[in-house]
Each structure stands twice: as C-alpha cells, then as structure tokens.
Amino acid sequence: MKKIFTLFISLTISTSSFAQIPAGYYDSAAGLSGYELKSELYGIISAGALDLGYGSGSGGLWQTYFTSDVDKYYENNGSVLDMYSENPSGPDPYEYRLGQSYNGGNQCSTVDFTAEGKCYNREHSLPKSYFGNATPMANDAHFVVPADFFVNQQRSNYPYGETDSPTWTSKNGSKLGASSFPGYYGTVFEPINEFKGDFARMHLYFITRYQDKLQNFDRFFPQLNPIDGTTDRGYKQWYINLMLKWAAQDPVSQKEIDRNNAIYDRQNNRNPFIDHPEWVNMIWTSTLSSQETAALNKTISIYPNPVRNGELHLAGYGLDTTTSVQIYSMEGKLVQTVNQNFKNSKKIILQNLPKGVYFLKVNAQTLKFIVQ
C-alpha cells in the first residue's frame, strides 16, 4: 500500500537527496529534453556498463538479487522481494529465501511446478521473446527481476496492461485478461498497483539503454510486442501512454532507489528514471485525452508506505493549491495538522506518531498509510 494514484505529473520531488548518484554522472544531460535527452542518457548509462551474465548456480543475476531484491520494506525479514507475490498491506501468500536449495534457499532448480509458492526464477519484465533473447539485455538486472515461477509462466509473453475482465488472478492480485486500456485489446498481464511505477521505469530504461538496437526488435512476436522499431519513441503509443500513467500513479519509492544503487554496484550503470523521475515526461508525451486524465490529475499519492524514518512525501497536481492536511488515527482522532505551502514543499515530518495505521486527509482524498 505504498502509493495511491496520480497521473501525468512531472515529479517535482527530487530523489537525488536519497540516491547515491556518482558526482557528475548526469552532467552532460543538463538542459536537454525530448529525444535528445533520451539519446544522451543512452550514452551515459551504456558507457562502462557490465554484462555479468544470466548466471547459473549462484552467479550472474542470482548473485545480484542478494543485494537488489531483499525485503527490507514490507515484512522486513530478508526474504526475496517478489513483486508478483508481495502483499503490501498484509501477510504474503508465500515467501522465498534467497539462494540455492542446498543452502536453504528457494531458487528454482527445476521447472516441474504447477502452482504458486514453489520457487523463484528470473523474470524478464519485458519478455526476452520481444528482443530475441539477445545479450546483454537478457542479463540486465535493471529489468530482470526475481519472480514466482508459476506466476511467471502465467504471464508468459503477454505485455503489461490493464484488464477489467481477468481470466486468472494470482494470490497477490496480479491479473491476466483482455486489455481494457485504450489502444490495445489483446491479452495483458497487470501487476498490482504497488509496483506499476517500478515496472514502468524499468521498461522506459530498456528503450533508453538499448535504443541503438530497437530497430531490430519489433520483428519479434509482432502481435504482442509493444516495441515499435524506432530509436526515439521506442514503444507503440498505447504502451507509452500506459508507462506514463503507471510512472505517475506510482512514484519512486525507497525500495527502487536502493535497488538502483545495488545494481549500479554490480553492473556499473543506473536507471535514470529512478534518479530523475521528471525526465519521463520530458522525453515522452501521452496522447490520452484530457477527459481521460482530468480526474486522475486531481488525485494525490504518498510514499514511502510504510513510513520508517518519520517523513511522508506527497505528489500530485492538486498539491499546488493545498495549504493544509490532517492526519487521523484508526479511531478517527485528529493527531496532526500540517499547515504549509505544498507547492514548494511536499514533505511532511510526522510528529512522533506511534507505530500503527493512519489516514491522511488532503483535499477531497483520504489516504491510508502505516508507520513502522
């Protein structure tokens, strides 16, 4: 329950104060926008990037997951943070231990499983069938994540999307079904809201990091593949619309920042859209109608959730005219009022709130968050 929804915002919350961005890493991108910015970022994140291999045993991606995908945010118990099985608002349906089975881990060693909760494998969030299983992209941890084997199999080669009529639902609520998102009507896989922004920024990273190869990728699985074969836009417009929507709905979290840093330590490159989420809307443009976006533009989102350091961050267009918010306990008691100009400062310092569940009242919205 990290974030609720806001759409097509140029995030003004800087993550650079959290992320360990090397000094000067993005200097050459200063002042750029549009596809010129995208091309410059391609050069930055490609220079010196390492291909550590897909891995076998405990190498490659398996080793990266020991630092990049550890649950320090929900159960906070060192289990695998699998975005296809994580339940952000309660107990997980199942959990995995990192590593191979002979060391007590749940890393997949065979593929003969017919239900969830057996083992975790390596999921190409952008299916490798879309790029012919080419390297180094097939081995890139910035978009290849640990995931339950069975859910991964159900997802198959379908693109991400949104569905109002799921034919299958995983134990954490991820869905498979006919697309209800404008511009595409085939079968799609929809992850839970908690991680939609994570996956969007991964996919925008892909078409930036590998823009020099995109001309060859649209020929693979053309009926399902959202890659459009251009070096600039990268994806078909419906998929750009979806990625922009998800990136705005689900702002950058501390989990993403930590994952970006961990992968940089291994691969020697970064996801720029985690470090600078405002670049998403500086490069790509949505073609959804103003009517389709107007209602969501008024909504506010919050992160991180759960809150662990006493700071709650807000995002959304509606904050520009907001000067006061209220925080209530589960019992409905007003425990804190924050009066400030949220156009300039979107950070709330919580006043010694005990651990528990609270509600933030902002404009016409009530948002639930947890203090740990």
TrEMBL record:
Catalytic EC class? hydrolase
The GO terms describing molecular function are: hydrolase activity; nuclease activity
Tell me which family the UniProt entry assigns to this protein: Belongs to the EndA/NucM nuclease family.
How far does the signal peptide extend, from start to end residue? 1-19
| This protein's record includes keyword Nuclease | yes
**What high-level taxonomic lineage is stated for the organism?**
Bacteria, Pseudomonadati, Bacteroidota, Flavobacteriia, Flavobacteriales
Q: Which SUPFAM superfamilies match?
A: His-Me finger endonucleases
PANTHER family in the cross-refs: ENDONUCLEASE-1 (PTHR33607:SF2)
Tagged with keyword Mitochondrion: no
Name this protein carries in UniProt: Extracellular ribonuclease
Q: Which InterPro entries match?
A: Endonuclease-I, His-Me_finger_sf, Secre_tail
Q: Which Pfam families match?
A: Endonuclease_1, Por_Secre_tail
Query: Which E.C. number(s) belong to this protein?
Result: 3.1.-.-
Positions of the Secretion system C-terminal sorting domain: 302-366
Q: Which UniProt keywords apply?
A: Hydrolase, Nuclease, Signal
User: What's the name of its gene?
Assistant: bsn_3
